[in-house]
Structure formats: structure tokens, C-alpha cells
DNA sequence: CCCAGCG
């Protein structure tokens, strides 16, 4: 099979869905033709008519033989499931077989080979980069698997579009957390090593070194990466001009545009740029997840966008073996962490433990360190500089076990993380008996980066926990194996063996 | 709830 828009799976052949459509996987009934409440749905429907199917040739078989033999490439065919691409308008794109197909400068390509150690575009790169880099520079909504290299896509997209000779911001990337902004800039610096392109990191400063923005020089770097509040601060202080920004990226875009995320901030920034920018600004939305509510909203934010997405069943991360462990009470959960996770976790790499609140992250950390278990914890109430050091220590491998909140649920990339623990299951804050499926997927995705093996343990305690876990399994059409006895060394050992980690 | 930010 050499065509991503056609497939042996009949449901994949139909490229009729738009981002505003109902999820049609589960239900047979189509959206009614009767007048809808005026939520913009009708606009979406009419835009839908313009969308036409696209054939992108991606030779999957060839990718496999070529890439898997080389040990260096980090992007070696991390996902095998199909990606569906839908183009808007009549531009014909073909997948980039080589980076040379993308009209990039020599300096930039050198960075890809030498610094990034890339050989050929990964699947998501091959499909998305032509859409980003070839005129008319259409907007793009791109969903791709965790650990498949979304960051490299949009970073390369930004670098490919800026003119190093113009000394003002031409590309902007907005991230939900300080940690992600730093991480993306790290990638950018590496990739741009042989170019003259510079970047500016717009995140809150260390409180100790606070200098009022008014006293700082204006930003002249080509690319700005940051968090919403700080970017807003720089623009309103007139130290960051948006007039020449021609590409705007939202990392973890569904969260940036969801009602309980950063919706207002994001929209304000888009508006600000569109108001000031001389040329039309290209908007890119990247995430591993776009739930139906967000899809509806997203299709109104972008304009006539190209789309790349995968079916939700294909997102469930088969490389990360997921388990549930029934624990009689909270004390037992801590016991599992102490006796099993610390016991085995260290052998198989690094571990991230997720809790529901900042406070529970802090208390769990205190409890464990008091008893001599070596770990660190990071959450949003820490001082900025403390966050940075704890993250740095973990990325350097100095610490093996990191306790955190959903601060790190999304995007955090550390290849040595093979074990994810849901100390608390992720739930919707406004409806705590409902799982937060997106957050679940993102958390699990912290293990198994770039096709590596991994395991995840969900610690369940109450009846509610059981019900939530069942819903998660049903939603992803997943059967999560049970670690039968929470006290049993052998059960955990067996689980890790089955996951391919021991 | 989690982020983000208020100088």
C-alpha cells in the first residue's frame, strides 16, 4: 500500500470528515440536516465541501527496511498506523522523500544530518513539511502520535520559513508550559546550529533576577518561543513586534484552544498578530489529541486548513504496555511505589509518577524521601528556578524517579523514561467521575518515546477508580492487563517482562 | 483540578 488516504480499512477511505464533524466511528447515524443551533456548525459544513481528498505516496515497506537498520536515527518509523491527510483547496502536495525536496537552505539541512542525526523525513515529517513549507502556506491542523516527532516538524517549519536577513520576529511558537517552551527551543537551537537564525525564549524569569521589561531591549530574534502570558506581556510592552510574523505555531494545540485551557489567551494572540501582520499569517496546530469539542472549535480558528489526523484507536500506544493494580487503600498505593516501583523501576530506566494535585505530589515526595527513597518532585507552585533544576537533573539522569502533576503530562520528552505510574487516574475536573482521556493518553506517552518499549501502571483504589479505568479501556478499545496481587514481586516482574523491559 | 500569569 502506497497511499495514505486509501487503505484496506474501509473506514479510512472516506475522507469526508471535517474537524467539526461528529465522531462517526461509534455511531451510524449521520449529523442531521435540520437547522443547527448557530454555533458555527453551518460554516464548518460549508467549508467541508471545499475539502478534497489527497493522495500522498508514502512507501511504507521501503521506509521500514531503510530506516530500521540504522541505529542512529531517532525517528525511525515510530508509527506504523495510517495517517490520514486532507487538503483544503487545490494545491497538490507530495510527501517529502528526502529533506532536499523541501527547498531548505544548505545550512539548515546540514543541521538535520549532523546535529539532529536525521537521515530521511519520518512519516509525519514527510507529510506535514510540504504543507507547511510550500506556498500558499495554508494553515495546518496536525495530529500525530506521541513520540513521533511533532516538535521537529514545527521547528523545522518555522526555521524553513524565516528570512535570517530580516532582524525581527517572523515565527512564533506558543506552548502550555515553561518546560515545553524550553524543550522546543533546545531542539531549535540544535537544528539551527549552522544557520544565522536566532531565537527568543519568552517565559517567566527567575524571580531573583526580575528586570522590568521596560528596561530590556526589544526582541530582534527571528523566532519567538514561549508561554502565553509572557508573550502577551512582551507584546503589550511593545518590546515584541508581531508585524512580521508569518508563521504561528500552537504546541499541544487542543489544550491551548480548549475552554479550560488557554483559549482566551490564544485567541487574543492570534487576533493581535492578524491585526498587525502585513502578510497573512500561517497558523499551525499540533497535538496528539483533538477531542470532538475541541475539533469543532479548532475548525473555526484556522482558515481553510490542511489536516492530518489519525483515528483514536490508532493512538493507544501499543508500545507501552498498560497495567492496572488494585490496591486496598492509599497506604497500599504508597507501598507499591516503595517496594515495586523503586525496586524494578531503577533497573529499567527512569520513572514518572503522576498525581492529581500539586499538594499530593508534594506530600508523596515528602513521604518517600523521609523513608529514604530517592526521588524529586516538580509542580507549578515551585519557584521557576527550582523547576528548572529538577527538570535538568532528571534529563541528565541524575534522578531516576520524578513525581509530578499534569504539568508534565504533555510533550515532555525524555527517552530514558520507560515507566509511567498513574498514582491518581486523570479525571475531568468539572466531572470527577469521568476520565480525562486526552490526559491519559498524553501521560502514557511519556514512556515509549520514538518507538521504544515502555510500561504504565495504573494504581486503583476506590470503586470510582475501577469505573474510570473501565471507561478508559472502553474508550480506547483496550484491554488493560491486571497485576493480580499488589504485594507480589513476581507479578510485577512478570508484567515488566511482558512489556519487554526486563 | 492542571497549566498560564498578575511586578
TrEMBL record:
Stretches with biased composition (Polar residues): 1-10
Domain Helicase C-terminal: residue ranges: 336-491
Keyword Transferase applies: no
Annotated Basic and acidic residues bias: 38-52, 59-73
GO molecular function: helicase activity
UniProt cross-references to Pfam families, sorted A to Z: DEAD, Helicase_C
Keywords carried by this UniProt record: ATP-binding, Helicase, Hydrolase, Nucleotide-binding, RNA-binding
InterPro entries (alphabetical): DEAD/DEAH_box_helicase_dom (IPR011545), Helicase_ATP-bd (IPR014001), Helicase_C-like (IPR001650), P-loop_NTPase (IPR027417)
Domain of life: Eukaryota
Ranges of residues in domain Helicase ATP-binding: 131-308
EC number(s) recorded for this UniProt protein: 3.6.4.13
Region (Disordered), start-end ranges: 1-81
Full protein name: RNA helicase
Organism: Platanthera guangdongensis
